[in-house]
UniProtKB/TrEMBL annotation:
Phylogenetic placement of the source organism: Bacteria, Pseudomonadati, Pseudomonadota, Alphaproteobacteria, Rhodobacterales
Record-given protein name: Glutathione reductase
GO cellular component: cytosol
Gene: gor
Organism annotation: Sediminimonas qiaohouensis
Disulfide partners: 42-47
Catalytic reaction equation(s): 2 glutathione + NADP(+) = glutathione disulfide + NADPH + H(+)
């Protein structure tokens, strides 16, 4: 049977674009459909714009530190329209780069929605049908709201980059990394931020000691954090234009803006997948095997739509492994073990491997941990604290987990992650000479465990 394409990719995010490009460069006839903007969540409404906002929000501390170090400098006010204009220009530039990369690789693109009709057929939103030997699903995920009265008044992380102006008072609902990151960002930009989270502590799933310090530092910097608290209902106050919020802690308060960061769901709704036999999981994710193959052999899926490890670099690796498996005849599973990651709160948190709690459930461990005021902030008279933590197997001596809460933790964990991924032992860390004076030197100078078990 002759097909229009060797590969048809649905989704123009980082994973889909990488897979399409590499397959086309290898000689495959490839097409890609994207209904929104090229670059996906990461480039357009996630990692990239968020990190630029992180940079913008940190300058208030930089100015204060500069004054403490003797610079004659005065803090000004943040101009959101100026920043937003430059942000939009940068995102347009990056989207253009993605389009050029696809065109340069010979990938045919369709700027429209696509659905799956059968195991080898795609239908575009204009009614056109295309056939392909292989179909790759890379539609990513989308923010979801919790289903309460008045939720339509709230925004999500998708819309926060496009606000006409920064609100004076903002409620962030949620306790995951997206909620915590934006609570810190908006606080740094001068917004009065309140955060509600229904759980006992933010950043569930991460090391308890590390996330506890992050929560403390967030509050020290001005975020009003309410744990064990959720929103019951919301409505618009017609007189003031603000949003009235009733919460489970009994409070009734008004905010200028409310942002829900209460989870994301895979983009599989109305894609025709179940009709053609593609198995979906409880959250709507495409169920795949170690080689990203779905229950329909000709249909594969990568990235957030599979709800495995929802990180851009992982989606890219999954895309590369898909091409290697399907087009190069080299079956390549994706290694999802020991992935370093960073949470861009203030301070940042970098982590790889097991939390102390997870490790203790598996085997006897030693815990090496130190918390201190870093030199720069201490000299400037700030009370900020950082944390360095290693979880070590008592039997093998391997470092099972590394957790850093500090400015620049994302940069540090990338390098520490190499050692942990290689199976470094605590003695390997000990043999490494410290770089002095740095915060990171504490990772190799902790000699005695603070806890065992």
């Amino acid at each position: 049977m002759a097909f229009d394409y060797d590969l048809f990719v649905i989704g123009g995010g980082s994973g889909g674009v990488r897979a399409a490009r590499v397959a086309a460069q290898g000689g495959a006839h490839v097409a890609l459909a994207e209904e929104s903007r090229y670059g996906g969540t990461c480039v357009i409404r996630g990692c990239v714009p968020k990190k630029l906002m992180v940079f913008a929000s940190e300058f208030v501390d930089t100015v204060e530190d500069a004054r403490a170090f003797g610079w004659d400098i005065s803090p000004g006010s943040f101009d959101w329209p100026t920043f937003r204009g430059k942000l939009n220009a940068e995102l347009e530039r990056l989207e253009g780069v993605y389009r050029k990369l696809l065109a340069g690789s010979g990938v045919e693109t369709f700027d429209m929605r696509a659905r799956v009709v059968d195991a080898h057929t795609i239908e575009l939103s204009d009614g056109t049908r295309k056939s392909a030997r292989h179909i790759l699903l890379a539609m990513g995920g989308w923010p979801v709201k919790p289903g309460i009265a008045g939720e339509e008044l709230a925004i999500t992380s998708n819309e926060v980059f496009h606000l006409d102006h920064l609100p004076k008072r903002m409620l962030v609902v949620g306790g995951g990394y997206i909620a915590c990151e934006f609570a810190c960002i908006l606080n740094g930009l001068g917004v009065e931020v309140t955060q509600y989270y229904r759980g006992a502590q933010v950043l569930r799933g991460f090391d308890d000691e590390a996330r506890g310090l992050v929560a403390e530092e967030m509050q020290q910097k001005g975020v009003e954090l309410h744990l064990g608290t959720n929103v019951l209902e919301m409505k618009r106050d017609e007189a003031s234009g603000s949003i009235w919020v009733k919460s489970t802690n009994g409070d009734e308060r008004e905010f200028d803006q409310v942002m829900f960061a209460t989870g994301r769901a895979p983009n599989t709704h109305d894609m025709g997948l179940q009709d053609v036999g593609v198995e979906l999981g409880r959250n709507g994710e495409v169920v795949v095997d170690a080689y990203s193959q779905s229950s329909v052999p000709s249909i594969h899926a990568i990235g957030d739509v599979t709800d495995r490890v929802n990180l851009t670099p992982v989606a890219i690796r999954e895309g590369m492994a898909f091409v290697e498996t399907v087009f190069n005849g080299n079956p390549t599973p994706v290694d999802h073990d020991l992935i370093p990651t960073a949470i861009f709160t203030q301070p940042e948190m970098g982590t790889i491997g097991l939390s102390e709690e997870e490790a203790r459930e598996q085997e006897p461990v030693e815990v090496y941990c130190t918390s201190f005021k870093p030199m720069q902030q201490a000299f400037a008279g700030r009370s900020d604290r950082v944390l360095m933590k290693l979880i070590v197997s008592r039997e093998s001596r391997k470092v099972l987990g590394c957790h850093i809460v500090a400015p620049g933790a994302g940069e540090m964990i990338q390098l520490a992650g190499i050692a942990v991924k290689m199976g470094a032992t605590k003695e390997d860390f000990d043999r490494t000479v410290a770089v002095h004076p740095t915060m990171a030197e504490e990772i190799v100078t902790m000699k005695a465990p603070v806890r065992t078990g």
